[in-house]
Amino acid sequence: MQQDSQEAQDWGSTQRFLPAVILIAVGAIFLLNNFHLFPGRDIWEYWPVALMIAGAFKLADAQLPAGRALGGILLVGGGILLSSNLGLLPIDIGDLWPLAIIALGVFMLVNRNANSWRYRSAWTNDMQHAAVFGGGKRKINTGDFKFAKFDAVFGGFEIDFREANIIGDSATVEINAVFGGAEVRIPANWSAVIQAAGVFGAFTDNSTQPNAATTPNFKRLYFKGAAVFGGVNIKN
Q1: What are the phi and psi torsion angles at 230 (to 5°)?
Q2: How far is residue 107 CA from its own chain's centroid?
Q3: Across the chain, where does the E strand assignment appear?
Q4: Residues 6+ apart with CB under 8 A from 56
Q5: Residue 135 and residue 152 in contact, taking contact as beta carbons nearer than 8 Å
Q6: C-beta atoms surrounding 194 within 10 Å
Q7: How far apart are CA 125 and CA 142, in angstroms?
Q8: Residue 108 reports pLDDT greater than 80
Q9: Fewest CB within 10 A of the end CB: N or C in the chain?
């Protein structure tokens, strides 16, 4: 129960403020537009601001180099798209497509130690996976699952926890889906607790919650992270 309390306290971090900031910013833009106080441009030209905010929060909240790289890519990419929409770039945005390849290279460079990290995770019960313009299937069958992290950028994962076990009361999985997604399967005796942010995306729980009467000692799997123009679907 102490870990559950800690998980709830962690939710008081930056993640829960992300959708609130997005809603306040979008609402303020529409309000100013209605009162003709906003520049005479199509307000939808400002959609890259969502990427920039998501990147800034990711930079502030990331603890690993891969997370900081992802935040920087979102922040810079959103700024480039916004500048193009506002006519501040004297070149066609289509000419900048090689930046996507550069961003992919930067992400791979800072994440170059992922294989050794995953090797060490065999001893710490932690796992980290990243997919950029790709994806894959991951079956977690550890007997004492505690934590895993998945980053999907223009890609996706199929994650299967049905053969895994949690020794304590709960465990945590962090999923960041940016223009991507994930499908997660959990055992019938696990309860999904969503503490993740959705920015033009969502975490959807389609799993069956355990019956406390028949399964008094069910486990809780906390979902954290963010879905930015993407989605995460949870089911049994």
Answers
A1: -155, -175
A2: 16
A3: 126-132, 135-139, 147-153, 156-160, 170-178, 181-185, 190-194, 197-199, 202-205, 219-228, 231-235
A4: 71, 75
A5: yes
A6: 17
A7: 8
A8: no
A9: N
For residue 61, which phi and psi values (nearest 5 degrees)? -100, -15
Residue 145: predicted pLDDT:
93
**Phi and psi torsions of 126, nearest 5°:** -105, 150
Tokens standing for 184? 């997660």
| Cα dihedral 181→185→189→190 (10° resolution) | -20
Task: Tell me if residue 122 falls in helix, strand or coil.
Answer: helix
Q: Closest by alpha carbon to 199, among 178, 220, 221, 169?
A: 178
Beta carbons within 8 Å of 133's beta carbon, 6+ residues apart: 104, 153, 154, 155
Q: Tokens for 208, please give them.
A: 């069956």
DSSP 8-class letter at 15:
G
Encoded tokens for 56: 């800034």
227 within 8 A of 11, measured Cβ to Cβ: no
Measured in degrees and rounded to the nearest 5, phi and psi for residue 224 equal -130, 170
Three-class secondary structure of residue 152 per DSSP: strand
Alpha-carbon distance of 118 to 138, in angstroms, equals 13
Please write the tens of the pLDDT for every residue from 216-234: 889 999 999 888 888 999 9
Give Cα 68 to chain centroid, integer Å: 13
